[in-house]
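Dear Dr. H.,

I hope your travels went smoothly. While you were away I took the liberty of generating a structure for the chain from your last submission, since the lab meeting agenda had it listed for discussion. I wanted you to have the full record in hand beforehand rather than looking at slides cold. The sequence, exactly as received, is reproduced here:
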Amino acid sequence: MRNVVALVFGLLVSFGFAFESVRGADSQELNRIKGLVGTWTGEVDHGNGPEKVTLVYRVTAGGSAVVETYNPGSSMEMVTVYHDRDGKLELTHYCMLGNQPRLKLTGSSDKSVSLELAKDSDIEKDEMHMCALTIEFESEDKIKQIWSMNMDGKRTKGPAVELTRKP
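The corresponding predicted structure, in token form, is as follows:
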């Protein structure tokens, strides 16, 4: 029995390494997002006064994706999944508006990552949706998210969400 367990474990480890090598190296931007793993808190003001927000980042799918959960367990919960496609960072945002805009990397530096709506996304031009995101990396434990939304065919910049990593 012990030999069977060792064999199964060995096969699983081997398959894990095989999948890693087939997948290829992650982009620098995805690795930046992986560095956000943990729980982050902050406040955002949508015009009705400051509201507390919590974001949780976790790596999934054998290290090929990062799941960001906004206000987990609440009626405002949303999920954003970051991953590489053809070596470049993309995300799909599962929005409480009921749509799933897909954003592609448009800019990157040591201090920020910017993504905008992919041209081949299935979002209608006049449909209300999130159309851009910039994440500013202020320090290892402080980030700022700036989302933009499309409303009635016009892009509007949302309020910045300043977040601090919980210890």
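Two observations you may find useful: The helical segments are 2-23, 28-34. Residues 44 and 52 are 7 Å apart (CA to CA).

With kind regards,
E. W.
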